[in-house]
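So, does this match?
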Amino acid sequence: MGYKILAINPGSTSTKIALYDDEKEIFTKTLEHPIDEIEKYDKTIDQFEMRKDLIISFLKENGYDIDDLSAVVGRGGMLPTVKSGAYTVNEAMIDVLSNRPVMEHASNLGAPIAYEIAKMARVKAYIYDSVRTDELKDIARISGMPDIPRTSTCHVLNTRATAMKVAKKYGKRYQDMNFVVAHLGGGVSLNVHEKGRIVDIISDDEGPFSPERAGRVPCRELIDLCFSGKYDKKTMQKKLRGNGGLRAYLDTVDAREVEKMIKDGDEKASIIYEAMAYQVAKGIGELATVVDGEVDAIILTGGIAYSHMMVSWIKKRVKFLAPVEVMPGENEMESLAYGTLRVLKGEEAAREYTE
């Protein structure tokens, strides 16, 4: 009998759960949370009981016994910076995520929910490749403003997992290769992997715009807008994250709708959408310099990597740098489960979290 791993990935209005038996997916289920339900809670952590109870109810109603679990893994939340790979969830981690997270984010619920269910099952809980994984080179931390050092916040979970898959496809070890990976989703982030470490990144607020995020915008004009008196802080934050990007220009976050608009002859939609591809390509070129141009492959992943239109625009501009591998989808549940499986098999060691 294999290792049974429950993976938990909280999103802003849903919680995705999946059960794996070794590398075989038993089920994946998205538990939806209506906006009016979410809005009842002042802080993200206040949703803990509601989301945990929904997961337990679903498992019971569908005949899955938590006593059969070998481990539970949650999406790593907004901790102070951590290393890549697995961490055992402990009280210190729960305390930080509950009381002092770096920022409010649904992923902060992953570890607490995993920890509680794991206690019930008398097994260990883990996080894997937290969004706050930070292994940047020292030189990459210099921003140009001492008050604001650069830190690593990107789609670590999916990008590391896809990089490992591409390395395996090439018959090599991840630790022996260099990749530039672009995650194309509701937010867009890019990173460069040098011999098994993400050594530099372009986060979703310093690079390409995306369906709902503004990305890099001119600083002087942004400061003027902040102090114009037209908007409060919350509104400005929403302009950058939530109401930026495609939504701001085209009033939709659905790339499929944008492509339909383009096919129907909407010239504005066409140039905005291509501008997003243009910015992604520029980011890839920027990160290629970090490894002196020695890039083994460029990887496009995330939900929008399913778009032939978007992918073709990006490939046209970057194919001179390295082969382009397209691995669409989020792959987050599989990445969480497979990472935990490697720990259970002794192929990787889990770190102990300390504040």
Observations:
- The mean pLDDT is 95.
- The chain has twelve helices and twelve strands.
- The chain has two domains: 4-133+332-352, 138-322.
- The longest helix spans residues 267-288.
